[in-house]
Specification:
By secondary structure, the chain is mainly α. The protein has a single domain (about 5-495), classed as Up-down Bundle (Amino acid/polyamine transporter I), CATH 1.20.1740. The protein is built from 19 helices and no strands. The chain has helices at about 5, 10-25, 25-35, 40-65, 75-80, 85-115, 130-150, 155-185, 210-225, 240-270, 275-280, 290-305, 310-350, 355-360, 370-385, 390-415, 420-425, 435-465, 465-495. Helix 2 (about 10-25) packs across helix 8 (about 155-185) and helix 6 (about 85-115) packs antiparallel against helix 13. It is globular and about 75 Å long.
């Protein structure tokens, strides 16, 4: 039986849905509107043009050149700049997604609570004598173990769950657009957040986002909101006609994400008044999405002339829908994140670096042992943070600060390796960068944008006097990189792997 043929289950449509669940998040829309109002979408357009589109096109060419690569971005980097640097860059990238799993496995229960009760009641949950933090910690561990078991059953399950998540997120967009336009029509074109002049598109009503440094820090946020597309790089070997489907899927996913962010931020002003709905007590970044959707439902009821109680009930229904869509989106993203990053790292690198059990594939052609090792580590981290008291929480906060920059540092490797990749002159069906000089200039520009983003992410806590956060934010990629380099040197010497050797994938 040909396992490779069996594995070709992912279509271009499925890839697009996987990208949407991995990249797009309505939470970014609500936070951006709270920070900058209408002024936010200009910067999302800028971030899409200077970061997402160029990096997506580069990744499309990578994928076209390595259609059967089991190692995803590891294979891209190894084939361009050598396995040692690929190992370091991919490890930094993987560290970000592992900490993401620790965080989201707990936060997902807020969505569950909002779906069931219409609000976050996780702080009242108890199992026996356990505190709410410990209870949610155990639920998070159970979630990790269950999703790891299901995703280790093969690509069909991963594709199905990520597709469901993508469908729900698209449905969320459609609901928001349709209801927002409906309310606008019923209100005879009157915006909840009026536009008095063109200044509204450049000036934030938020007093915390008036200075140039604060605005630049928001641009950095907008750039980072587009991160995550590279996580699907590990599924090219399971795609049908990957040379054509992968580049097209990337570009469609990128276009959808950019348009969704820009459109949603602008349309938030149809029903949400900044001073009335955002700048008030009890509204924060954590519940901003639910506030906006509750207001959307309430505004619809009011525009239809319904009673205040009925309008509020519609708002509550919308809150439950956003909770369901967010829940399904997170679950879909989890299935991709549990599989693709660890698979890219373990199967892309030289198998001699790892214990044989970690590189072994199960009957579903999935590195289940490596995934269970990852699940064990994540579960232990969750247990430590949930039951370890204040010291453990402080340690976890340090880890979160460390990955703030690590999440974008991996793009330094992906984008920076591209000119070296072009010099290889590998055969590929998708080719858009044909002028080496202009491409190199573009790479330098994108690298400067990424590095500027990293720099201002570090500067922001310094300006607020939080030097400890600034230190751990800056040191994150360095520590993760040193860990990767040390492991590579020690394991490579032990198993006779030359430093510059990389496998042919």
């Amino acid at each position: 039986m040909d396992n490779n043929k069996q594995a070709k289950t992912i279509t271009m449509g499925s890839l697009v849905l996987m990208i949407i669940t991995s990249v797009y998040g309505f939470g970014n829309v609500s936070v951006s509107y709270a920070q900058m109002s209408y002024a936010a979408f200009i910067w999302y357009i800028f971030a899409g043009l200077v970061f997402m589109i160029p990096s997506s096109l580069m990744m499309a060419e990578y994928g076209s050149a390595y259609p059967e690569a089991k190692g995803g971005i590891f294979t891209w980097l190894a084939g361009s700049i050598g396995e040692k640097w690929a190992f370091i860059g991919t490890f930094i990238w993987l560290a970000n997604w592992v900490i993401w799993q620790v965080s989201m496995a707990s936060r997902i229960w807020i969505s569950v609570s909002s779906l069931l009760f219409g609000e976050d009641k996780t702080q009242t949950w108890h199992i026996g004598s356990l505190t709410s933090t410990q209870t949610v910690g155990l639920l998070a561990i159970a979630f990790i173990l269950i999703t790891t078991f299901l995703s280790s059953r093969g690509m069909k399950g991963i594709q199905a769950m990520s597709s469901i998540g993508g469908v729900f997120l698209i449905a969320l967009n459609v609901l928001f657009i349709v209801v927002s336009i409906w309310v606008l029509i019923l209100n005879h074109g009157q915006l909840a957040e009026p536009i008095h002049s063109a200044k509204a598109f450049f000036h934030s009503p938020n007093p915390n986002f008036q200075s140039p440094i604060a605005v630049i820090s928001f641009v950095v946020y907008a750039i980072f909101a587009y991160g995550g597309m590279e996580t699907v790089s590990g599924v090219t070997d399971s795609m049908k006609d990957p040379e054509k489907s992968f580049p097209r899927g990337l570009l469609i996913g990128a276009a959808f994400t950019i348009c969704s962010y820009v459109l949603m931020i602008f349309m938030a002003g149809f029903t949400v008044n900044y001073q009335r709905d955002i700048a008030r007590d009890g509204v924060n970044i954590g519940n901003m999405t639910y506030v906006i959707f509750h207001r959307l439902g309430t505004a619809l009821g009011q525009a239809l002339g319904l009673s205040a109680g009925t309008a509020d009930a519609i708002g509550g229904t919308f809150v439950r829908f956003i909770a369901l869509a967010t829940l399904m989106g997170i679950i879909g993203a989890f299935f991709v994140m549990l599989y693709s990053p660890i698979k890219s790292f373990i199967l892309g690198s030289d198998e001699r670096l790892w214990p044989k059990k970690l590189t072994k594939l199960n009957d579903h052609e999935v590195p289940a042992n490596a995934m269970w090792a990852q699940a064990t580590f994540v579960s232990l981290m969750i247990f430590f943070v949930s039951f370890g008291g204040s010291a453990a929480k402080s340690f976890y906060q340090i880890l979160q600060n460390m990955v703030n920059v690590s999440s974008s540092a991996s793009y330094i490797f992906i984008v920076g390796a591209f000119p070296f990749f072009l010099r290889k002159d590998l055969p590929r069906k998708f080719k858009i960068f044909t002028n080496y000089r202009w491409t190199t200039a573009l790479v330098v520009f994108v690298e400067l944008v990424i590095c500027a983003g990293i720099l201002f992410t570090i500067i922001e806590p310094i300006l607020q006097g939080d030097y400890m956060t600034a230190f751990w934010t800056a040191i994150g990629p360095i520590i993760f990189g040193l860990i990767a380099y040390t492991f590579y040197r020690i394991s490579g010497k032990e198993h006779g792997v030359p430093e510059d050797e990389f496998p042919e994938n």
